[in-house]
Amino acid sequence: MQGQVTWVNGVTFVGEAGSGNSVVMEGGQKNNGIRPMEMILLGVGGCASYDVVGILQKTRQDVASCHVELKGHRPDAVPAPFEKIEMEFVVRGRNIKESQVARAVELSAEKYCSASIMLGKADVEIVHSYRIEEV
């Protein structure tokens, strides 16, 4: 995996991944891009969501949509690494089995999601929960 981050001006940077995709990052003063710590939070949510949806599809659950609501808790200090991340998966579909959602979230957290496993090894408390909405 490769990437490059280039300073644009002020506190604005552009990150380009080896895949060719790019993202604008900003230090928070002008709100012209995503803050780097927001990217970490979104990365964890994306990694885990990819796992959960994939596992539910493999178990033939009729998933109409899925999103994860994220809350990152950081101290009011410098540096301010995440101390805790709360992830609540909201799975919408028809006749979704709760046991399958619970298992998908568990497998993501403990076996598949590299991002959350990495942060857990760095002593970030990660709390997973879910809710199911019938459509």
Protein topology:
Blueprint: E1 3-9, E2 12-17, E3 22-26, H1 36-58, E4 62-73, E5 84-94, H2 98-112, H3 114-121, E6 125-134
Parallel strand pairs: 5-6
Antiparallel strand pairs: 1-2, 2-3, 4-5
Helix pairs in contact: 1-2
Brief write-up:
InterPro entries: KH_dom-like_a/b, OsmC/Ohr_fam, OsmC/Ohrsf. By secondary structure, this protein is α+β, with helices and mostly antiparallel strands. It is 34% helix and 38% strand.
Report on the structure:
The N and C termini lie far apart (39 Å). The chain folds into two domains: 34 residues, N-terminal domain of TfIIb; 99 residues, GMP Synthetase, Chain A, domain 3. By secondary structure, the chain is of the alpha+beta class. The strands form two sheets. The protein has a three-stranded antiparallel sheet with strand order 1-2-3, with no helix packed on it. It is globular. A hairpin with a 4-residue loop joins strand 2 and strand 3. It holds the Pfam family OsmC. This is Osmotically inducible protein OsmC. InterPro entries: KH_dom-like_a/b, OsmC/Ohr_fam, OsmC/Ohrsf.
Describe the structure using short key phrases:
single chain, 135 residues, alpha+beta, N-terminal domain of TfIIb, GMP Synthetase, Chain A, domain 3, 2 domains, 3-stranded antiparallel sheet, 3-stranded mixed sheet
Q: What shape does the CA trace take?
A: globular
Question: What would CATH call the homologous superfamily of the largest domain?
Answer: K homology (KH) domain
Beta strand count: 6
Cα distance spanning the termini: 39 Å
Strand arrangement across the biggest beta sheet: 1-2-3
Counting DSSP H or I runs of 4 or more residues, the number of helices is 3
Strand content bin: 35-45%
> Could you report the average pLDDT, rounded to the nearest whole number?
96
**CATH architecture annotation of the largest domain:** 2-Layer Sandwich
Low-confidence stretches: none
Which range best describes the helical content: under 10%, 10-25%, 25-40%, 40-55%, 55-70% or over 70%? 25-40%
The CATH class of the largest domain, by name, is Alpha Beta
Order of helices and strands: EEEHEEHHE
What name is given to the CATH topology of the largest domain? GMP Synthetase, Chain A, domain 3
